[in-house]
Specification:
By secondary structure, the chain is α/β, with parallel strands linked by helices. It has one domain: Ribose 5-phosphate Isomerase B, Chain: A. It has six helices and five strands, in the order βαβαβαβαβαα. A five-stranded parallel sheet has the order 2-1-3-5-4, with helices on both faces. α2 packs parallel to α3 and α4 packs parallel to α5.
Length: 150
């Protein structure tokens, strides 16, 4: 199944982003590259916010956010209530992010994992469906914190 996938990275991960974009296009996916496209220092929140907006507006169904660790850009993406971004480093967490959390974005740390592990994470993420059922109520609270009694 083909998807519209947005990718965004900072300077630390632009190489991995470019490689993933080419790989996804070769697999038949429609890729929206939100930058950055070089080694010049940039601020990861700017690119995380772009990715969250692309999910919110429907420009993309799924997203892949990358920075050196994956941490900072995942925080930025998650500032948008329409985005559910999970930082993953291996396929099991990528699959669980989809199954239990209906994640629509994954974050990867380019300084933490290699390209083959990144591809394995993306493959698992894209091939895994949300389980629904008991997880629906929890996922709804992620985008609507006012529904939580806390």
């Amino acid at each position: 199944m083909s998807h519209r996938i947005a990718l965004a990275s900072d300077h630390a991960a632009y190489g991995m982003k470019a490689e993933l974009a080419d790989w996804l296009r070769a697999a038949g996916h429609d890729v929206l590259d939100l930058g950055t496209n070089g080694p010049e220092s940039v601020d990861y929140p700017d690119y995380g916010y772009r990715l969250g907006k692309a999910i919110e507006t429907g420009e993309a169904t799924f997203g892949i956010a990358l920075c050196g660790s994956g941490i900072g850009i995942s925080i930025a993406v998650n500032r948008n209530p329409a985005a559910r971004c999970a930082l993953v480093s291996e396929p099991l967490s990528a699959g669980l992010a989809r199954e239990h959390n209906d994640a629509n974005v994954i974050a990867l740390g380019a300084r933490m994992i290699g390209i083959e592990m990144a591809k394995a994470c993306v493959t698992q993420f894209l091939e895994t469906a949300f389980l629904g059922d008991r997880h629906v109520r929890r996922v709804e609270k992620l985008s609507n914190p006012e529904r939580s009694p806390a």
